[in-house]
Amino acid sequence: MNDYLRPIRDVDLGDAGLVGRKAAVLGALLNAGFPVPDGVVVTVNAFDRALAGDPSADVSMPADIAARLAEIDPALRDQSLAVRSSAAEEDLRDASYAGQYLTVLHVKGERELLDAVRDCWRSAFSEQVTTYAQSHGTARASRVAVLVQRMVPAVCAGNAFSADPVTGERGQVVVNAVSGVGDLMMSGQASPEEWVVRDGEAARRSTGQGAITEEQARAVADLARRVEARLGAPQDIEWAFDDDRLWLLQARPITALPDPPPVRVPIPVEVPEGFWRRDDYGSRVPWSPMRRSIFMDVYNATRHHMFQYSFLAGVEYREVGGWMYTRMVPLDGLDKIMERVSEIVAAVRSDDAWLLIDEWNERGQDALATKTAALRDVDLGALDDEALLRHVSVVLDLVEEVHETHFRLASASMFLVGEFGLLVRDLLGWDVRQTMRLLSGGPGKTTEPALALAECARVARSRPAVRKLLDDPEEALSGGLADSDAEFAERFAAYLRDFCHRSVGVDLTEQTLAERPVLVLGLIRDQMNRPELRTAGLLEARDEAVAEARALLAERPDTDRERFDRALVRAQAAYPVRDDKAFYTALTGGLVRYAVLELGRRLARREQIGREADVFLLTIEEALAALGDGEPRRTLVARREGEREWARVNPGPPVYGEPPAGWGGGDMEDKFSRLPEEAQYALRVFGWVTSEFQSAQGSAGEPENGALRGVAASPGTYTGPVRVIADVSEFGKLRPGDVLVCPETSPEWSVLFPCVGALVTDSGGLLSHPAIIAREYRVPAVLATGRATRTLRDGQVVTVDGQSGVVETVE
């Protein structure tokens, strides 16, 4: 036709620079036999002519171009037209520019056509296009062609993705449809119905008005797949049905498409004998091969220390079908039981529990802090391979040492808290909730990270420049923070160093908070407008409870008051140890993650694996061997990824086997009474602790009138919006005053609590981590509802009663 106009049937992919990506793709598809409406393209030469070489000039319609448009085929010109921008940088794999440029529909007559073309040119200089271009590294939008096509009189329209844009799954097509023209959907004026087409079967995934039939959904899916096959990549297409046929209006690559799910590889399910429970506390997803190879043997070798004062041999971990299962292991035979009796008697007589706690508080914690800090500060990237191998060996040795310490201290601290709980029950008749008032509020690792974060928030609150920067934590981190306030930037860096290198998730695959500094800055921002945490108030509440107890004991014999005071000192020293030790256990997990990631970086750089995170699909032995031999592990990684995906979608049952017979019955009470006094005492203490710790098991009832019931773990009442947080990756969702609803928490979640209005969990007990943290922060808490994360939804307003253990929906 000329340099200004081209029939769409005369353009191909090679003409994208002249007619823009949208028109070039549609021309290629039209020539390949696809049902593309006929039309013409106003080329970028016309755009240049309209600007007359001055990009700052107001775009007008040159007379010669207007004359050319008047000469287009009357069969096209006299119809209702769709006029759309077609830019050279539009519809790219990494930048779709979807919705950025102008589309003008139902254009009729020469005057409207000229106005529509000119408006499309002008859209290249709109604020939204300029902002989008700059966000993708381009100074401004590119030259613009204009596509003029016959307007399809659509009875229904929409778009379709030839691969699932959310999951990345290539085996299904997602179709969105509305009645009438698709622009109503693209502009947000109409909500589409959604169909999923897989293996020739179409299923409507959302409610809708019946915009299309099942047959039409299959036809659209077939069109999307054929376009993908022609263009060689998953496509996002726009389509429309008129009364007679299906039309293709646009095709572009799906941007930001996730990697497709791995091909699932079945895992043999070999169930060992005995009664096994799936380890939902330790992980709600299958363990990664790396985590399993490092921690399973360590758990099996060290967890028995928790049961020093019982007739249990320990806990055994086994992988079944990709999931971790545990079983309680009883002592085997009378000889083992009598041996344990002798050990318990010796431990009670030597006051072994107190000696362990005292040693930890006086020396052990400081020694471990020094050791972990030295390993934390190692520059892993600067190590050669041999030095890295030595570092990994040191970290792995530390894992076993720390877990040995962790479980020994767990037994000792529970014993001292338990003997105090028994004494308080016997002397005062108090239950566990009242007893915990005597212990909560002291210093320790439960509150230390959050208090340090609150201090950062206090400092930020007093500095206007920092306050302003924290409106956009990502921008603040990119350099503005250090330039605006070096002192605050140094304080923030110190916080990351001292508290944020702990593992906070259930697997080594999950990032530490130090790897997510934007999230931590966001927590500081959210705390700036919250009341400051008053630690003195926590101690005052504890002192008031102690005064109340002593007043009740005033008329008791001196020996009772002395027993109370001695047990109180010991229990208050032991109570924080439960979470203090967990701090260093989690920090060791972070050190393991960093060392493993460094292995992954080197293997990925040498192309032995595809990306550094693939190292978590290897065992530690395999990763170390790969570093030494230089051989590829991509095939093994792919198989492991498929096995883990199979396990994820095929979780085993909650239990395997039948529970063993109870310890009761027969002459057990008589046998118990024949044990040495120290053994009887220790078993009563252990029984008190386990009954309280596990008091939540099975306690959650069915919702009544929309209310959830659970364990009343921390008193108080609060009404606020729900925020369901599954794991650390969702910490950023939390807003000040939210009701935190989660499966379970660990001590690492304490940084959230100054912003939390109340806490609701699926599991936990009165002596579990979430209960401890909630009481420390005076946050009303209901635990062990069994179903909160599945029943409640974000934004729903609830009232949490931490005294009665009830969660009621307000709206």
Task: Report the biggest beta sheet as strand number plus sense, adding barrel if it closes.
Answer: 8 strands, mixed
Q: Hey, roughly how much beta strand do the residues contain?
A: 15-25%
The number of helical segments is 27
Q: Find the count of extended strands (DSSP E, 2+ residues).
A: 23
SS-based structural class?
A: alpha+beta
Mean pLDDT: 88
- Low-confidence stretches at least 5 residues in length (pLDDT < 50)? 91-99, 135-139, 696-700
**What is the number of domains?**
5
Distance, first to last CA: 64 Å
Helix content: 40-55%
Gyration radius, in Å:
33 Å
Give, in spatial order, the strands making up the sheet with the most strands. 16-23-22-18-19-20-21-17
Tell the overall outline: elongated
Descriptive labels:
alpha+beta; eight-stranded mixed β-sheet; 5 domains; D-amino Acid Aminotransferase, Chain A, domain 1; 27 helices; 811 residues; Dna Ligase, domain 1; six-stranded antiparallel β-sheet
Describe this structure in words.
The structure is a single chain. This protein has 27 helices and 23 strands. The model is unreliable at 91-99, 135-139 and 696-700 (pLDDT under 50). The protein is α+β, with helices and mostly antiparallel strands and 811 residues long. It has five domains: 5-150, Dna Ligase, domain 1 (2-Layer Sandwich), CATH 3.30.1490.20; 156-253, D-amino Acid Aminotransferase, Chain A, domain 1 (2-Layer Sandwich), CATH 3.30.470; 276-442 and 540-656, no CATH class; 448-532, no CATH class; 708-809, 3-Layer(bba) Sandwich (Glucose Oxidase, domain 1), CATH 3.50.30. Helices cover 46% and strands 15% of the residues. GO terms for molecular function: ATP binding; kinase activity. InterPro entries: ATP_grasp_subdomain_1, PEP-util_enz_mobile_dom, PEP_Utilizing_Enz, Phosphohistidine_dom_sf, PPDK_AMP/ATP-bd. Pfam families: PEP-utilizers, PPDK_N. Residues 735-805 form the PEP-utilising enzyme mobile domain.
